[in-house]
Here is the input.
Amino acid sequence: MVGIVGYGTYVPRYRIKTGEIAKIWGKDGDAISKGLSIQEKTVPSIDEDTATISVEVARQAISSCGILAQEIGAIYVGSESHPYAVKPTATIVGEAIGATPDIIAADYEFACKAGTAAIQSCMALVESQMVEYGLAIGSDVAQAAPGDALEYAAAAGGAAFIIGKKQVIADINATTSYTTDTPDFWRRESQPYPGHGERFTGEPAYFRHIVNCTKKLMDKIKSTPSDYDYAVFHQPNGKFPMRVAKMLGFSQQQSETGLLCPIIGNTYSGSTPLGLVAILDIAKPGDRILATSYGSGAGSDSFDITVTKEITSVKRSGLKEMIVKKEYVDYATYMKYRGQWSGGK
Amino acid sequence: MREVAIIGTSVTKCGELWETSFRELIVEAGIEAIQDAGIEGKEINAMYIGAMSTGSFIGQEHISSLALELSGLNDLYIPATRIEAGDASGGVALHQGYIAVASGLYDFVIVGGAEKTTDTVGGETTEILSSMSDREWEAFFGATFPGLYALMARYHMHHHGTISEQLAKVAVKNHYNGSLNPKALYRKEISVETVLTSSMVADPLHLFDCSPITDGAAALVLCPLDKAKEYTDTPIKIVASSQSSDTLSLCRRKSLDSLLATKKAADKAYKKAGYGPSHIDVAEVHDCFTIAEIMAIEDLGFVKKGEGGKAMDDKLTTLDGAIPINPSGGLKARGHPLGATGISQAHEIVLQLRGKADKRQIDEARVGLCHNVGGSGGTAVVHLLEAI
Here is the structure.
């Protein structure tokens, strides 16, 4: 069965606390931190972007399972912060890991679910035997306008999955998507920061798509929430994923392992992939995982995954250790690292 | 002048109606009001519709013609007129409809109000709302409506000893009433603590002191009182319909703890009716902010100036109080769909006087008052309605 063969992950070392951002804008940091359930978020350093994060996670994914880069037949990088508007990130990754030139490569953009869209495309290529292995990456250095509500959440990080049929560590039993044209969040050509529909991003967007997509998956394979050991949902803040889990009948215990937003923020295309990585890092053979992403605009992808005995033979990513190893920056340093001092140039 | 009655009424659900367009709101409210009146569309002689800022909210002006078309009445070639007076647009539309029937020019008039506010977001919405204030003397300098009403609240607190807890009690009462109204936006009860611990918008007004951005529409059918009994067993007589206007800018008003437009409109209405506030059984007042309800019950004469806060402590305005105020939940909890608000208020009073307000019904309500304000008090409209 097609599934995950290897995986890698990365989050930047720098953090900024919710209270530090709130202080600058004269807001109550404790209230915002509690309201969003976000204590701090990752900050990419001045020389980090979606390309560097994607290369890092790709390298780790390859080394986790020991396949050769040349065996990878396709690379898809999902992000909403590709460094170039025109020029692919996927080619940078392909060249850096030595997978070029015999690869299919493209960039994806679907707000926060571009990474899971990449997984689905790789699954299709593997199933149709067009490639032996596909590399699916979700990574972002998310933008937020200074002073906007998004600033408390927009973070950086990514994860990569090698998708194949041999030595699979986690079978992907089924996947479904639920897609509509729902403009809850957007960034137009040459706009430096996204705009959003405030509360419109909740019920008609996030909740509607995740709930419908997940139900569609569970109907398709006739599963119930109690069949799963773990569940992970897209994490724009710490509150929404817990609420949607409850709406769908999942317990706090099933959701908490993959819930990273409170300590790293929303890594956008990296969000659901990173949550999945956190689960794979501690998973045992036989564990069953439900994962549902959400991308504004809008759509969700759901996955039903069963961990195999091969999980014991791969190098786990060490995401937890990476998250703990951190250094706090103040708001001015954050601005400098995000390039705001030059107007985002 | 002829006497005028309301024979049909309707209101849509108030809320963040993401799936409902401005056009759908108009159709829903209009058709239900006509059905409630039991008349045929072809009997209608004129239409008045209140809307605050459709041009800015949805890029559509000339909504009078649109409303006629959507109602399927365009083949009648009757006059359809859009009324704009900020968030008093609905109340002024009702006033105009009243004049049209009372004068004898038209027999059957439909008056409505509609607003679609949730297609814009954040600062854009605030900017549109601030166009109801004085652009050159207020909005350009950063004054928003919470800011303007906060000034009035501070003044009221300073001169009359009103305190934040009393303001909060307005919100608590209106949320309770809203919990009994299936058409209300907010249907959850809150506590004084909820209000006082919510984020500060403009000191002393917290988030829960402010009415919400709301979509909604409402409509009424008016006709001469002597024809009303042919259509309904429970016509509601419009005893008085009065409007007063004042300066647009707050800084040019003679008073900061009172909306004189409200007082003048109320005085005219009471004079026409031949009775005063003690005759009123139930009232819907313009609580765009909690301080606005406190000032309204003073300006309308239900309590003396400065005693609005104490009235909250004494529970005078609860559903079982001496003068129940805002049984619908008011702008605070039912919602504030701007141009539709004045008509929504009249809808609630009609229900109360018909004895059809279910769990929030005021016992033996015979006389009701509606009070709709535009902006910070540049326009005020007062209607007195009676069950006959």
